[in-house]
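Q: What residues go here?
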């Protein structure tokens, strides 16, 4: 192996990549429990299909566009690595093989479009969604990943490397990117039938809690793994991820109790995810105390943002905008306040003597990714809607998208009904027994 190679760091990154992969099934469970029974399988499938589509595209051209040598101005990579050919197996990214880095970044590319699906739950055609995933990953995610993650000594991505935007693990490239796309698609597809009239409560809160637990577990790979080495920065990112998530859960629950009078399990799960989102860009540059502050602010702010969608009439089905867009913006901007200048990435925020410079750079990153993702996502969604159709027919939406799109249902109630029919006494027997009891009581 070449000089500088570390077997320990490589093993750490491979394990982290596997943890990030688990986040996509975790997201499927999280979203799947939040929808109504008739949409459960469709919601699970919308996350799982990203595993298939993005994995293939990543090998064909995605890795080359995101991490190939810069094609100019830090906007996109070139096509040197089409089919992942031409990659030197002995080349290193830091102390790990380039191939290990490619595998790790693939898992980021997979989960990002899957996050969008929650904004259009209950009403999207599966084939149209699959097409959107392929197009969106190609023209939105791969270029933005190059902007933010590609480093080449000042000649890399135009946001991260050239302009100094700090995004340790994907607050802009993943969460703001997906949240802005979710907002665009929610506007293109419109509101669900019965929005603000019919109850649309989660059908399985245990499934939601399981999904949030898997997300929390996998997020340690997402954040700590982004150090690309088993070192002190990874350890700090791990600690910051834990405490920010915990603080966000407490903040969300406190807001919920004061506003609505109850501590809900859905609030606990959503608060945890909001904290995970917010600490993602900041985990490598803030202290644990700063991470607690980031988590608390995000928990309260995201809980408040959820309530705005009803006032605005925005049918963001599973709160992708309120959690991922708002949480990603908060976490990215707070780097400009809480970055210590010595945890991992060197720039200091306003509260640590760095002035407003880093905050201004964070605003640039947030605005650029949000605007680019929203506009391109709206254009892609509108084009699909006007050509092959993106939204299912109204009768399909009302009767249940699982049967129409997948010819399956998540739960088989017919067997339960047949069992009850076999064990229940016949009506005539019930009537006879009742008459006999009445006669005995009369005596």
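A:
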């Amino acid at each position: 192996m070449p000089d500088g190679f570390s077997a320990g760091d490589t093993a750490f990154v491979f394990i982290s990549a596997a943890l990030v992969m688990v986040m996509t099934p975790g997201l499927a469970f999280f979203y799947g429990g939040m929808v109504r029974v008739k949409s459960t399988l469709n919601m699970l499938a919308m996350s799982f299909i990203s595993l298939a589509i993005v994995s293939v595209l990543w090998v064909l051209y995605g890795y080359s566009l995101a991490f190939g040598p810069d094609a100019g101005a830090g906007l996109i990579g070139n096509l040197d690595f089409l089919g992942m050919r031409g990659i030197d197996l002995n080349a290193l990214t830091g102390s790990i093989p380039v191939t290990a880095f490619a595998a790790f970044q693939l898992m980021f590319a997979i989960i990002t479009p899957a996050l969008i699906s929650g904004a259009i739950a209950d009403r999207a055609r599966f084939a149209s969604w699959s097409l959107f995933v392929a197009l969106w990953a190609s023209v939105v995610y791969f270029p933005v990943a190059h902007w933010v993650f590609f480093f080449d000594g000042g000649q890399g991505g135009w946001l991260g490397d050239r302009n100094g935007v700090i995004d340790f693990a994907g607050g802009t490239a993943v969460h703001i990117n997906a949240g802005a796309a979710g907002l665009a698609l929610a506007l293109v597809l419109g509101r669900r039938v019965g929005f603000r009239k019919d109850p649309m409560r989660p059908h399985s809160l245990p499934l939601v809690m399981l999904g949030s637990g898997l997300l929390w577990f996998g997020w340690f790979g997402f954040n700590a793994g982004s150090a690309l080495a088993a070192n002190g920065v990874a350890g700090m990112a791990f600690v910051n991820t834990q405490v920010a998530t915990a603080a966000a859960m407490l903040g969300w629950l406190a807001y919920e109790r004061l506003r609505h009078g109850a501590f809900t399990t859905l609030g606990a799960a959503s608060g945890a995810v909001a904290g995970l989102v917010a600490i993602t860009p900041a985990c490598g540059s803030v202290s644990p105390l700063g991470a607690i502050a980031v988590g608390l602010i995000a928990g309260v702010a995201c809980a408040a943002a959820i309530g705005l969608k009803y006032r605005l009439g925005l049918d963001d089905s599973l709160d992708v905008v309120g959690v991922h867009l708002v949480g990603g913006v908060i976490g990215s901007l707070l780097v400009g306040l809480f970055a210590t200048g010595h945890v991992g990435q060197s720039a200091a925020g306003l509260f640590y003597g760095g002035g407003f410079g880093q905050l201004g750079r964070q605003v640039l990153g947030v605005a650029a990714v949000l605007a680019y993702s929203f506009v391109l996502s709206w254009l892609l969604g509108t084009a699909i809607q006007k050509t092959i159709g993106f939204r299912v027919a109204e009768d399909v939406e009302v009767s249940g998208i699982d049967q129409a799109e997948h010819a399956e249902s998540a739960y088989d109630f017919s067997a339960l009904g047949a069992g009850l029919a076999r064990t229940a006494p016949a009506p005539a027997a019930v009537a006879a027994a009742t008459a006999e009891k009445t006669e005995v009581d009369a005596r």
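A: Context that may help when evaluating the design: The longest strand covers residues 92-93. Residues 88 and 98 are 8 Å apart (CA to CA).
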